[in-house]
Structures are given as structure tokens and as C-alpha cells.
Design a protein that fits this description.
about 180 residues; alpha/beta; 3 helices; globular; binds magnesium ion; six-stranded mixed β-sheet; binds inosinic acid; 8 strands; Rossmann fold
């Protein structure tokens, strides 16, 4: 089915273990609280679904969608919110859930945007982190797997909208260097 995957980097067990660890930490950190878990569309939908099914705390879920256009390395102003949250997060504890943290442009823009609604706290949770690619200095509070600068797909992560449903994560063929939209 996914014969155009050159190399599998993380299998279902790796991803499940990483998700277990994050869920445990969130359960401990938010005991007695009811955070608003905000998934960044589209990439986070699978990780978010896996994560919330492991949580024992109370929480609510919302989504936000951002798009970057033009030369994404040009400026943070190139990120735009294309679908907003519908929850009033004023005074709430917010956890932003992302599939992968790369340059940091998207998440820094989103967290700044959400701060404008005066939440009590905001934390960042990402399944994958590529710290070597960071341009905007932003550090996730919860990281599943730290990975190299390779472009990866699967488990919500896409290349041209493909591979999101792949249960493992790997590098698509002929693209083991780097792909950017
Ligand atoms: P950033 O703004 O550069 O941090 O980019 C974050 C977004 O870029 C993620 O939410 C992904 O949608 C996309 N992205 C970055 N790296 C990858 C990758 O390796 N595979 C698939 N999507 C990626
Ligand atoms: Mg994304």
C-alpha cells in the first residue's frame, strides 16, 4: 500500500509509547483541572485522537487551522488563521497539540494569537520535533519523538495530502533530503 516509502523511521509501537508518555505527563500536570486541548489542523488529528483516549483528566477539545503562504521562511506574518476555535479560552488552561514542530513559525503564531484571548496558561504538545530546523525560538512542553531534519509522513503527517493514515512514520521515496510545500 505504501510502497513509495523509502524508510520507516518510527513504527506503531514507537508512536504508541511516545503517546503513552505524554498522556501520563498531562494527566499528572493537569490533575483536577479541565484543559482545553486545541488541535492544529489537519496534521494533529490522529495524534490528538490517540492522546485524548489515554487521558484520565477532564478536558474539552477544539481545533484551529493555520496556513502559511508565500515564502514561509520570509516572515512570521506569512501565517494566517484560516479556521478559528469556537471555545472561550479566557482564564482556561490551553494545550495546543501539533503533529510536528519544524521552523516554529506556525506554532509561535498560533500561540501568540491564542494568548490574545487571555487564557490562564498555554502549553505546547507535539508528537514530533525537529529542533535542528528551528528558526523561531519555541520549545514544546511535551514532545513525543525528537527527529532529524528529514521530511516525514504518516500518522497525520502528509505530503500533498497523502500518507496521513499511514500507521507508522517514514520518509517518502526520492525525498529523503527535504520537502517543503
Ligand atoms: P513550522 O511552521 O515550520 O514549524 O511547520 C509546521 C508545519 O509544517 C507542521 O504542522 C506540518 O504541517 C508541516 N511540516 C513540517 N515538517 C514536516 C514533515 O516532516 N512532514 C510533514 N509535514 C511537515
Ligand atoms: Mg501541521
Amino acid at each position: 500500500m505504501y510502497e513509495d516509502i523509502e524508510q520507516i523511521l518510527f513504527d506503531e509501537v514507537d508512536i504508541s509509547n511516545a503517546t503513552d508518555d505524554i498522556a501520563q505527563r498531562i494527566d499528572n500536570d493537569y490533575k483536577g483541572k479541565c484543559p482545553v486541548i486545541i488541535g492544529v489542523l489537519k496534521g494533529s488529528f490522529i495524534f490528538l485522537a490517540d492522546l485524548v483516549r489515554r487521558l484520565n483528566i477532564d478536558f474539552t477539545v477544539d481545533f484551529i487551522k493555520a496556513s502559511s503562504y508565500g515564502e514561509r521562511t520570509e516572515s512570521t506574518g506569512n501565517v494566517k488563521i484560516t479556521s478559528d476555535i469556537s471555545t472561550d479560552i479566557k482564564g482556561k488552561d490551553v494545550i495546543v497539540v501539533e503533529d510536528i514542530l519544524d521552523t516554529g513559525y506556525t506554532l509561535s503564531y498560533i500561540t501568540e494569537y491564542l494568548r490574545g484571548f487571555s487564557p490562564h496558561s498555554i502549553r505546547i504538545c507535539t508528537l514530533f520535533d525537529k529542533p535542528g530546523r528551528r528558526i523561531v525560538p519555541i520549545k514544546p512542553d511535551y514532545t513525543g519523538i525528537v527527529t532529524d531534519d528529514l521530511f516525514i509522513v504518516g500518522c497525520g503527517l502528509d505530503y500533498n495530502e497523502k500518507y496521513r493514515g499511514m500507521p507508522y512514520v517514514g520518509v517518502p521515496k526520492k525525498q529523503s533530503k527535504k520537502i517543503k510545500e
